[in-house]
Specification:
alpha/beta; Aspartate Aminotransferase, domain 2; four-stranded antiparallel sheet
Length: 444
Amino acid sequence: MRPDDTEGTTLAGDGAAALAWVERYLERVGELPVLARVEPGKIRASLPAHPPEKGEPFANVLRDLDDVLLPGLTHWQSPRFFAYFATCASEPAILAELLAAGLNNVGILWRTSPALQELEELTLAWLAELFGLPAGWHGQLEDGASLSTLAALAAARHARPGHEVVVCSEHSHSSVEKACRLLGLEIRKVPADEEFRLRPDALDLTGACAVVATVGTTSTTSVDPVAPIADACEREGAWLHVDAAYAGSAMVCPELRWAFDGVERADSVVVNPHKWLLTAQGCSALWTRRPDALREAFSLVPEYLRTPDDVSSFSEYGPALGRGFRALQLWAVLRCFGREGLQASIRTAVALAESFESWVREEPGWELSAPRPFSVVCFRRDASDETNEELLGRVNARGDVFLSHTKLQGRYVLRLAVGNLRTTEDDVRTAWDVLREEAARVGS
């Protein structure tokens, strides 16, 4: 028996069954409880403790996917997933991921897969054009914004020796603090204004190698004023990194580019297409106008990787050596949706969030907790924190929808995030109905 003889598994037969499973799943995901309803350890206990001695048919994998794993999944593909940042892997992204897995290219160097690197270069140039970013910036794809931010701050530290402070808003993503911890840098948090935006007048860039401005903060999607922050960075010689992981996708819509005023002056920018641009998880776009700084920070080419090719490889611009064919799914999404399709998706999400916001505003006993620049609404019952926390627990336990929370100015706040391609007004209305029904059952 050959090592690859997996009980006769074939792409023609089992592949068709797997695709059919995905198709059925996407058709019925809106009917499944959005939040997983299992206790910790339940899934593991339901599976064999030891690996099989002999290979099994792939059909057994699909069987256990249905019977064991599915009850333990929280369904990020559900049109009623409104927690954190709602995401959606579209059909082109799913199919392109299958192709990428079949090709299984490893981009450690240009020559190990010229198409992988050059398609990534082209696709990032396309995306920059769609977003209105300056032409000619170096772009690359990473697994997530955490790794992209780590790479940018490592380059900033390398470019300014002796300056070991990173300045950011008190509402910056936790990945900034984690990157500082990993890089041995000090983090200095700046207070925010009444709309949860970084206050440029409070910037202290003493000893700073970098400032992180956020366009679309995690809790409220607030917009730090990039232009005046850029002024301060230019005066002091600090690197400006713009974290637009969630909201950056909105740049495809000209009417939303007000939020990105000054972003062209940044040294680096990160946007996660896997958050709001219909690609699957693991697709984070990082651009920089200072690629030499990244290369100086990361380039390390051992002898066994040296080649006569007169070309730089992506492995010289970031912490990872190998990289998968991530660009294939982003390229497929851009081709299959086009500018108009991407704009329609973003505008629909914003419009649905605007509708929900209006319902909260008009309903007695409810209040809005922050401005809504994009497709996330922060709100709460006009009651105690304990009541709001109990309300969220009851809503999520029903399974109809899944929402998350944050804390703003010391108060417990609910969040509803719209971003799924398949979400309709009926889905958002369901969330509002469930919230009001459960609120009536919770004492204030």
